[in-house]
Every structure is written in C-alpha cells, then in structure tokens.
Design a protein that fits this description.
Rossmann fold; six-stranded mixed β-sheet; four-stranded antiparallel β-sheet; 29% strand; binds adenosine-5'-triphosphate; binds magnesium ion
C-alpha cells in the first residue's frame, strides 16, 4: 500500500483581492510507502498543513494527482475519496476539531462509526492508549475542560484508534512535554511496526529511532529531500 503525490500544486486566491494568487503548495512530488516515516519540515506558512490536507483528500489540488495504490483519488468521485479517508487515513489536525457537545472518548470513537461491529474493541484500545498518555481520567470530560496538550493527545488517540494505514500528524508534538512526546512516539512506533506509514509536519527538527524521509519545504516547494538516520 502506497501513496504517490505527483506534481501537486494548490493555489489560493485571496477572498478580498481576486488578482492575488498564493501558491500554498507548488509542484510537490512524494512517495509514501508502507512502514515509512516522513517528516515535512518547514517554517510557518511553508505549506505543511496544506500538503497534509491534500494527501488526506480534505483539500483538492489545483494541479497534479494524489494516487493511492492505483486509485487516482483526485479524479475519483466524492464517495470514493471519503471511503478512502475513512478506512485508511488517520489525521491529527493542527488545531482542535473536536465536537464540543461530546466528551473525549465519544469524540475519539465518533469518526469510526463505519467500524460499528468493532466498537467495543475500539473503545478498549482507545482507553489503553489514553492510559499510556496519562489521559484515562479525562475520557469523560468535554473538550473545553482539557489543556492544549491534553487536547492534542486526545486527537492523536482519535487518529490511531482504527490502526490506519497512513497516519498524517500536523505538529503532533508542538504542545507536548518531553514525557508525553516519548509516549506518543512509542504509540507511533507500535503502529509503524505493524506497517502503517507515518507523515509528521513540524517546524522543528525531530529525532526518530529509525530511518526517515525528510522533506524540507519553503514557500510551498520541496527544497531538499534526504533519507536520514539508521536503518
Ligand atoms: N484556506 C486558505 N485560503 C487562503 N490561503 C490559505 C488557506 N490555507 C492556507 N493558506 C495559505 O497557504 C500558505 C501555507 O499555509 P499552511 O497552513 O499550509 O502553512 P504551514 O506550513 O502549515 O504553517 P504553520 O507552520 O504556521 O502551521 C499560507 O501562506 C496561508 O496563508
Ligand atoms: Mg500548519
């Protein structure tokens, strides 16, 4: 299972000025293979979130293609895209997307209604992960009762609970202390060892235990690509 990003561009037009066009992502190509670890590194505004949203199918590219196995998801109809996202992608958004009326565990389980028959198992797994992140006591709380870092941890659990093939995480460590970062790294490692590919966007260089594909972005473009670390 693999994702190919083929010369993808996303142009935004300013709502106030139609002649202003911003290339949030420009001509980016990437290969994301099973079990790989990809780091998208770049300063604020370099296009990391836009690129993750394009891969996740949340945003449509202006040009280029996203191919999942042999499915051109950018030219497929909407239901195919949502099926693909639902089954195979776990997304950790940069900002809180929790439903405010639901508590933490309900928020974690709610996007997985397509796995109805496994719900009890999913809940057990979610509670296990919350415990590892020292969050089990917060399972019944509402989003507004959480700190920024706790919210991030809960969103990470929501993305991981269905054991997705592709984990797209937007600044997952930005609000975490070093202990929480370690625990999240351990959860990611576990899923990677089971074959999931992990794509992390970050402003900061991060160190991983294994080889990573490092893409450095600036103004929407990939400026360097290298393989880093030990095999
Ligand atoms: N919906 C949108 N409409 C118009 N412009 C947008 C939109 N989303 C992003 N942009 C622009 O695209 C550029 C890249 O934004 P993006 O959020 O991808 O950057 P980023 O690398 O994730 O930044 P950060 O590190 O601050 O999260 C920015 O200049 C931003 O203004
Ligand atoms: Mg961002």
């Amino acid at each position: 299972m693999a994702i190919k990003v083929i010369r993808v561009t996303k142009v935004y037009e300013s709502s106030g000025n139609s002649t202003f066009k911003l290339h949030a992502v420009k001509n980016v190509s990437m290969d994301i293979n099973e079990g790989s670890y990809t780091l998208l590194l770049g300063p604020t505004g370099s296009g990391k979130t836009t690129l993750l949203s394009l891969i996740a199918g949340i945003v449509e590219p202006t040009k280029g293609e996203i191919v999942f196995n042999n499915i051109y998801i950018t030219s497929s109809n909407d239901s195919k895209i949502s099926q693909f996202r639902e089954r195979y992608i776990g997304y950790v958004p940069q900002t809180n997307l929790f439903i405010k009326e639901l508590n933490v565990i309900e928020n974690i389980l709610s996007p997985n209604s397509f796995l109805k028959r496994q719900m009890r198992h999913l809940k057990t797994y979610a509670m296990e992960m919350l415990e590892k992140l020292n969050m089990d006591r917060k399972a019944g709380m509402k989003p507004f009762e959480l700190s920024g870092g706790e919210m991030k941890k809960a969103m990470i659990v929501r993305a991981l609970v269905k054991k997705p093939l592709f984990i797209l995480a937007d600044e997952p460590f930005s609000e975490l202390d070093s202990g929480s970062t370690k625990s999240v790294m351990a959860l990611l490692k576990e899923q990677r060892e089971n074959g999931s590919a992990i794509i992390v966007a970050s402003h900061d260089q991060l160190s991983f235990e294994k080889e990573i594909d490092l893409y450095t972005l600036a103004e929407g473009q990939v400026v360097t690509y290298e393989k880093r670390g030990v095999k």
